[in-house]
Amino acid sequence: MLSIDQERFLNHHKIAHLATVDDKGHPHVVPVCFVLLGKTIYIVLDDKPKTVDVMSLKRVRNISGNPYVSLVVDHYEDDWEKLGWVMIRGQAMVREVSELNEEVIQLLRSRYTQYRTMNLENRVLIVIEVEKAVSWGKIK
Fold first, then answer.
1. What's the number of CA atoms in the CB half-sphere (13 Å) around residue 90?
2. Residue 45 to residue 125: CA distance in whole angstroms
3. Sequence-ordered list of residues with C-beta below 8 angstroms from that of 132, at least 6 positions apart, any chain
4. Which of 26, 73, 127, 130 is most buried, most CB within 10 Å of its CB?
């Protein structure tokens, strides 16, 4: 599944791009904050302003209809010898934070200082079970 280098790369980078697909086959990609715990990726639907209720977000609706997602974490520099990315494919589900252990919240708060003042305990998470990981370029 995930190599040590892929895990290290994911843990080093803070922003990913989550791709979902709607019922008409149209892709939808959004930047997300995430943590990796074992072979599972967690994305909290946090307190950043949203125009709709979190359960009505397009990514959540798409996952409800089609749980297969991709997540890309990449690194860019003008020196193209330093480019690299990791792409995760897996199945996602939407869960209440309260259904998970406290370790996920602690990891999110230690990774993103903004989360230290947010009430994450009452939020919703996208949980991705990693089925396949591919990578390219300089990820070491």
1. 22
2. 6
3. 1, 88, 89, 90
4. 73
Residue for token pair 């302003």: 49
Q: Distance (Å, rounded) from C-alpha 114 to C-alpha 117? A: 6
- pTM confidence score: 0.93
Q: CA 84, CA 76: separation in Å to the nearest integer? A: 7
Q: What CA–CA distances, in Å, run from 108 to 24, 40, 135?
A: 33, 13, 24
59 and 30 in contact (C-beta within 8 Å)?
yes
Q: Which residues of 12-31 are buried (b: 16+ CB within 10 A; e: fewer)?
A: ebeebebbbbeeeeeeeeee
Q: Identify the pLDDT of residue 140.
A: 85
Residue 77 pLDDT > 90: yes
